[in-house]
Design goal:
With 421 residues, the protein is α+β, with helices and mostly antiparallel strands. It folds into 3 domains: 39-128, Translation Initiation Factor IF3 (2-Layer Sandwich), CATH 3.30.110.140; 136-224, Translation Initiation Factor IF3, CATH 3.30.110; 229-416, Roll (C8orf32 fold). It has 13 helices and 15 strands. The strands form 4 sheets. The chain has a 5-stranded mixed beta sheet with strand order 1-2-3-5-4. Strands 6-7-9-8 form a 4-stranded mixed beta sheet. The longest helix has 24 residues, at 2-25. Residues 1-35 and 398-408 have low confidence and may be disordered.
Length: 421
């Protein structure tokens, strides 16, 4: 007996020494089950409270299961009876739980009592495929949403589905982010897509915030041309720009931004329509086809700045009450200036000059540019003079029906100094 005891002690000591060495060489993680959650026994989940029942139904949806079973053991109903609790849990899962509201077509529970517990069979039908569910991207914050939208627009994707944390905005907020993302990606801005936004769950009647602060945002995009054709246009534009950029060495100063301004004006003429009568409102129209409206010129200048590492943005505003687009470029010294490439004198303008010439824009959305306009005075109705018919004093350098200034090689011809006169 004594020998056996000594052998056992020796064995324990040896195991202990090996354990110490092992502990020195490895990291260990201890995982303990959540005491408040439902427990799983094979394909069956056991729940004792309403919250566990609700979690079980949500689990089935998260796993993409079309059928699941919940055993209610030692269950004390919250709503008077078990079936009322089951109906409430299923209703929550498809109306208030974001993934359920987005993916589930219908859910049907069946409840039966078996000896000492209730057995709940849950049947689920989906209106989304598992690939669609797996493609949902989780994001937090406006910047992250905008970046995902930029990626979608760059590939001319038809849909973006986001799981957004702390999101209590509406559909119009998302449409505005799509618009901003469009102008942030000028090489892919080849026609503003139509945008359809759906939020899951929708806001309860009379409420201004979504339950839980998490929602799935579905954005569907319909482009004015076939995405394959748009991709080919983008590739042609990017190829031409890449070749041109090799000949451009500009700095983010006034001289550098002026070089890009002159290059664009030498490449493209102002025109509302292309040769086929369509709106010439893209960088492709300006840099490849040689004619563009104010939107196309602004996108083209934005793209040239991006390729040369200069900070620039597209401004959407009005000129004499009509929709108009131009740029604000930020120089290396931190100063910002307006640039309207449709005009020969549209370079490096300050806020005061823009306001004086009839431009209007949201000044809170964009950086200030130099001298500011004088503060507007309050005018009483009796002081308002009888308006006269305004006479335009500033006409774009080329008429709306101007002929194109260059073909598909317009940009490279200007850069290499071989442009036809």
């Amino acid at each position: 007996m004594k020998r056996a005891l000594i052998a056992v002690l020796a064995l324990l000591l040896a195991l202990g020494l090996c354990g110490c060495a092992s502990m020195l060489d490895h990291n260990y993680t201890v995982v303990q089950p959540h005491e408040d959650g439902p427990t799983s026994d094979g394909d069956v989940i056991t729940a004792e409270t309403y919250q566990q029942l609700e979690d079980a139904v949500i689990y089935f949806i998260d796993q993409g299961m079309s059928y699941g079973v919940v055993h209610l053991s030692n269950y004390d109903p919250d709503r008077g009876d078990v079936e009322a609790d089951v109906d409430a849990a299923c209703l929550y899962a498809v109306q208030e739980y974001p993934l359920g509201a987005y993916a589930v077509s219908y859910i049907k529970p069946q409840t039966s009592y078996i000896v000492s517990y209730y057995e709940v069979s849950v049947y689920i039908s989906y209106r989304r495929t598992q690939d669609q569910v797996k493609s949902i991207v989780s994001v937090t914050g406006t910047s992250a949403i905008r970046e995902e939208l930029q990626d979608t627009l760059r590939s001319f994707g038809a849909e973006a589905v986001l799981r957004v944390t702390y999101f209590n905005e509406d559909e119009e907020f998302i449409r505005e982010l799509v618009r901003q993302a469009y102008y942030d990606t000028p090489e892919s801005a080849l026609g503003m897509p139509e945008v359809t936004v759906s939020l899951y769950p929708g806001l309860p009647e009379g409420e201004e915030t979504a339950p839980g602060g998490v929602r799935i945002v579905e954005i569907q995009l319909s482009y004015p041309e076939d995405p394959e054709l748009l991709q080919k246009k983008k590739e042609k534009l990017v190829s031409q720009l890449s070749s041109a950029a090799a000949h451009l060495e500009v700095k983010a100063d006034q001289a550098g931004t002026r070089t890009l301004f002159d290059l664009l004006r030498s490449t493209a003429q102002y025109s509302l329509r292309d040769e086929d009568g369509r709106r010439a409102n893209t960088a492709y129209a300006a840099l490849v086809e040689g004619r563009a409206d104010s939107e196309g010129m602004a996108l083209a200048y934005q793209l040239l700045c991006q390729y040369t590492g200069i900070e620039c943005t597209v401004v959407s505003g009005t000129l004499d009450g009509a929709d108009w687009y131009w740029n604000i470029v930020t120089l290396s010294d931190g100063e910002s200036r307006h640039v309207d490439a449709t005009r020969a004198d549209g370079f490096a303008l300050q806020d005061a000059e823009m306001a004086e010439q009839g431009y209007q824009w949201d000044r809170e959305e964009f950086p200030s540019c130099g001298l500011q306009p004088a503060a507007e005075e309050t005018i009483l109705p009796s002081d308002i003079p009888v308006p006269l018919i305004p006479v335009p004093t500033d006409v774009p350098p080329v008429t709306a029906e101007a002929s194109p200034s260059g073909g598909s090689g317009a940009l490279m011809s200007v850069v290499s100094g071989e442009r036809e006169k």
